[in-house]
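Hi, here's the filled form for the chain we discussed.

Project: internal
Contact: R.S.
Residues: 75
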Amino acid sequence: MPYKSLSALPESVRDNLPRHAQEIYLAAFNNAWVEYRDPGDRRGKASREEVAHKVAWAAVKQQYEKKGDKWCRKK
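And the returned structure, exactly as it came back:
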């Protein structure tokens, strides 16, 4: 279930990430949703959704880091 908009993202993403990080999350999730549709492309028994969320968080963490309670863009 790819996300159509930022408002459709999980509450944990919307409430914690800055807008740009949400955009990264949405794009990475949607790309991973397509890329890992075949169970043979996934490791172990992870679901398609679980893999897409992991990929999305990894993409966010390439450009953002958590400092205390806030996500900040890496310098």
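Let me know if anything looks off before we file it.
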